[in-house]
Structures are given as structure tokens and as C-alpha cells.
Amino acid sequence: MKQVKLWGMTLAAMMMVLGASAQNKEEVELKMKEAGELLNNKKLIEAIPVLEEVVKMGQAVGADAVDIVTEAQKYLPTCYQQKGSDLYKAQKIDEAIAAFVKAENMADLQGDVMMSRKMGRTVSQLYMMQGINSFNTKDYNKALESFQKGLKQDPDNIQLAYFTAKSYAEMGQLEQAMELYKQVIAAGAENSKFAKQATDAKADMDTYMLVAASEAAKAGDIEKVQTYVAAIPENADANLLLIQTANNLKKYDVVIAKGADAYAAQADAGKKGDIAFLIGVAYQNRGNNAKAAEWLRKVTAGSNVAAAKALLADVTA
User: Fold this and answer.
1) 299 near 273, Cβ under 8 Å?
2) Quick check: 298 pLDDT over 50?
3) Which residue, 52, 53, 57, 61, is CA-closest to 20?
4) What are 169-191's pLDDT values in tens digits?
5) At a CB cut-off of 8 Å and minimum separation 6, what does 25 contact?
6) What pTM, to 2 d.p., does this model score?
7) Whole-angstrom Cα distance, residue 305 to residue 297?
8) Residues 130-159: pLDDT tens digits?
């Protein structure tokens, strides 16, 4: 009799569990109906906690409520998109980003590629806006952080790549800056719609590298000067700086090795003459009077015309 009684108790317990499961499913359906009314009345933001409760309840129920959970999840990306838009209008940018990221993740979960990409681009644009604001107040650390987040969201965003490079450059992280600047320039060469960014990137590279080369020249670090000038090989002023620095440091081998390129890059007649003079001096100091004379004869303008004539007389005597 005890065994029969125990079996009866077990069966009763099972019936209670099944009853609870059935009741829970009904509650999920009712909760989804509540969410549906909010959606129909375009109260998308108010629908979010209700839809999330549907998902939570439905997942607890299990297989019986899978369809209801799926339906609720389908609406959540659009609801979070609306929440993000409202927060953006209220200038609550951080909260807006969080909402759009939620929309992106949920769309990705649903396999909605278009929505996911759209939200990703929106988030990247908001990060870029934050970064620009920080950059304009010279908070380059914060600007870089925002630009990096934006670029992570949208790696193909050339404008973001440009701003990220500029932030790196302002912080003195020139290697990272140059890598991104080159990517921007390459994008401009491949697609004309990025022409402006490419032009700006080239101008920035010249400016930042020339400043860095000037600082290295003041410190007498010829190797760094060469490194920075090598990043902008067509920049005439940078090449002239290299030759002048090498001459001042009596690094005549550097003058000889880099002089012809510096001379070719220079369009100004006076500066061209100055470079030719320094190359002539370098060859003369290395005992190659024939090459010295060749370069000294090219000094027809600039501040060293008289000195070049005098030295030419010496090396050809």
C-alpha cells in the first residue's frame, strides 16, 4: 500500500508541474498581447520592457513558447532603434549609443543583416561626433578613444580613419598615424569620393612629419630626421632640412646619398642652388673633387653663389 500511495503522490506532483507549465504559457501569451497593444499604438519604447518580459517568461517555459519568444525578439531591434533616436534628440549621446548597440546586437541575433549594419553605421557616426567634439577642445586622448570605437564599428569608414590618424598624430604617435594616413590616401586613389580625405591626409602627413623632423634636427638626431623625411619623400622642405642637418653634423655621406633626391624635389631656384652647394661641399670633404665641381657648377641662385665660385676654383685648381 505504501508503494501505491507514493506513486499517487508522484503523479499528483507531475500533474501540478504540467499545470504550472500550461499556466505559464498562457501568461506568456497574455504578456505578448499586452506588448502587441503597445506596438499597435506606436508606443515602441514602452513596449521594450514588456517584450523583454515576454522573452524571459517564454524562455522559462521552454519549447511550448518558442514561437512567442521569437515573435517578441523580432520587434525589439526596431523598438531599441526608436529609443536610441529619442535619446539622440535629447542629446543623451552615451545612452543613445547604448540603445543603438542593443538594436544592432538584437538584429544580428535575428539574422537581420540590413538592420544590424544600419545600426552599426549609426553608432560609428555618433562616436565620430563625440570624437570631433573632444578633438576641437584639444582632448586628444578622449577623441582618439571615440574615433577608435567608431572605426571598430565601421572599419570601412574613411572619414573615421582620417580623424583617428589625426588624433594619433596630435598625441605624437606618428607610426600609428602614418599607417592610417596611408590607408586614407590609398582609398582616395581607388575611389574619387575619398579624394578630399586623401588630400587632407597627405597635407597632414607633410605637416606632422616636417615638424617632427625639425625637432629631431634641433636635437641632432640625423637618423630620426631621415626616418621622418622618408615618410614624405616628395616634400621639398623636408628634403632640404635633411641635407642641411646632415651638413651641420658633418654627415657628408648622408648628404651625398640623399642630395640628388633633395635637389630633384626642390622647385625653388634659390633652395635648389643651396642644395647643390651642400652636395659640392660634401664631395669636396670626401676628396672627390670632380663630383664636387659638377655640383658646384649648378649653383646659379641662392645664398651660396659666391661661395660656390670660390670653392669651385679651389677644387679645379
Assistant:
1) yes
2) yes
3) 61
4) 999 999 999 999 999 999 999 99
5) 61, 64, 65, 68
6) 0.77
7) 9
8) 999 999 999 999 999 999 999 999 999 999
- Nine cell digits for residue 114: 540590413
Angstrom distance (rounded) from CA 193 to CA 188: 7
Take residue 32 and report the three cell numbers written for it: 505578448
**Cell numbers found for residue 12:** 499528483
**Whether 262 contacts 242, CB under 8 Å:** yes
Long-range contacts of 299-305 (CB under 8 A, 24+ apart): 299/273, 299/274, 300/269, 300/273, 301/269, 301/270, 301/272, 301/273, 302/269, 302/270, 302/271, 302/272, 302/273, 302/274, 302/277, 303/270, 303/274, 304/273, 304/274, 304/277, 305/273
CA atoms within 13 A of residue 131's CA, in its CB half-sphere: 26
Grid cell in block for residue 282: 660634401
In terms of C-beta density within 10 A (0-12 exposed, 13-18 middle, 19 or more buried), how is residue 182 classed?
A: middle
Number of alpha carbons in the 13 Å side-chain half-sphere of residue 9: 6
* pLDDT value of residue 317: 84
Domains, the chain, ordered by start: 19-111 (no CATH), 138-232 (1.25.40), 235-317 (1.25.40.10)
